[in-house]
TrEMBL record:
Keywords: ATP-binding, Nucleotide-binding, Transport. Signal peptide: none annotated. PANTHER family: ABC TRANSPORTER ATP-BINDING PROTEIN, ABC TRANSPORTER ATP-BINDING PROTEIN NATA. Residues 7-229 form the ABC transporter domain. This is ABC-2 type transport system ATP-binding protein. Residues 56-77, 306-328 are annotated as: Disordered. Belongs to the ABC transporter superfamily. GO terms for molecular function: ATP binding; ATP hydrolysis activity. Pfam families: ABC_tran. CDD domains: ABC_DR_subfamily_A (cd03230). It comes from the Archaea. SUPFAM superfamilies: P-loop containing nucleoside triphosphate hydrolases. InterPro entries: AAA+_ATPase, ABC_transporter-like_ATP-bd, ABC_transporter-like_CS, ABC_transporter_ATP-binding, P-loop_NTPase. It comes from Natronorubrum thiooxidans.
């Protein structure tokens, strides 16, 4: 573990019965850094955040915040937003923040916090009468009343409209710029790419890749691609000088009737258009794109899921063979 890290996890393991939530998860987050955890549902993101904040006791491994164990650290220096957070809904937004501010000796003005999350004009509205996105922003505000040094946000912008989401993003950026260390989980790859200094991909309870968004895209994102919307089959592109394939399954950005030309620069798109026209190949659209963090997510998460499926299949086959042996 790095000595300068503000948030550390080393070999965290946690199981609930036969369900393995964490399997040797490790990470290190430096001061003032925004670290985003991404991964599929059930990968262990929420359990990892709970282990880091002391609300879940790991079965083994070590977690530390600012040099202390999560259960010993000064709680006034932390802000924690769980994925499921249900404050008293008959209090107004201002009353809720004033309540949480009252838990600390040196808290921020609730009105200032409401302004930070873009709700300056809704302070007197009951929590239950706010929209889902506004409620979530109030919850974000509740984690900021103590002006924390370290902030944990589990899916902070879930349910928030695009304008409100950008308000929260700007707030997180400002907090990080002022020295706050932020650990967040998200399924929004655009959110991770914009906010995170580094990203950790959690799959099957372990952090299987970490690095800056650019580094992860460069190492795991694959090549640039030109998607051609056409009913023509791959044989029609046999003479094209670039590799051509069908769209990868499960990637919703690709249309059903299409072929994908890979590893192609924008300047070469005219060459492909000339090829299409020379062979009278009918097409309805062209889309060029570079790999991004979503491609990294899909590539690595799919690999881990397939490995898990293979292991499960091997185990099932072994069980069946053993049972057959017993029967014989």
């Amino acid at each position: 573990m790095e000595a300068e890290a503000v948030v550390e996890a080393q070999g965290l393991e946690k199981s609930y019965g036969e369900t393995v939530a964490l399997s040797g998860a490790s990470l290190a987050v430096e001061g003032g850094e925004v670290f985003a955890l991404i991964g599929p549902n059930g990968a262990g993101k929420t359990t990892l955040v709970r282990a880091l904040t002391g609300t879940t006791e790991p079965d083994s491994g070590q977690a530390r915040i600012m040099g202390d164990s999560p259960t010993s650290v000064d709680r006034s220096r932390l802000g924690v937003l769980p994925q499921d957070f249900s404050p008293p809904d008959r209090l107004s937004a201002h009353e809720l923040l004033a309540y949480y501010a009252g838990l600390y000796d040196d808290a921020r003005d609730p009105d200032d916090v409401l302004a930070d999350v873009g709700l300056a004009d809704t302070g007197e509205t009951r929590y239950e009468d706010l929209s889902g996105g506004q409620q979530r922003r109030v919850c974000v505000g509740a984690t900021l009343v103590n002006d924390p040094d370290v902030l944990f946000l589990d899916e902070p912008t879930t349910g928030i409209d695009p304008a409100g989401r950008r308000t929260v993003w700007r707030l997180i950026e400002e907090l990080a710029a002022s020295g706050t260390t932020v650990v967040l989980t998200t399924h929004d790859m655009a959110e991770a790419e914009r906010l995170a200094d580094r990203v950790g991909l959690l799959a099957a309870g372990s952090v299987i890749a970490r690095g800056t968004p650019d580094t992860l895209v460069r190492e795991h994102g694959g090549a640039s691609r030109l998607t051609i919307e056409t009913t023509a089959d791959l044989e029609a592109f046999a003479d094209l000088e670039y590799p051509v394939s069908q769209p990868e399954r499960g990637r919703g950005r690709n249309p059903d009737n299409a072929v994908v030309v890979r590893d192609i620069d924008p300047a070469a798109i005219a060459t492909v258009v000339d090829y299409l026209e020379a062979r009278t190949i009918v097409y309805t659209g062209l889309t060029w794109s570079e790999p991004d963090l979503e491609d990294v997510y899909l590539e690595l998460a799919d690999e881990t899921e397939l490995e898990g499926t293979d292991r499960a299949s091997d185990g099932a086959e072994g069980t069946n063979l053993a049972q057959a042996g017993e029967t014989a």
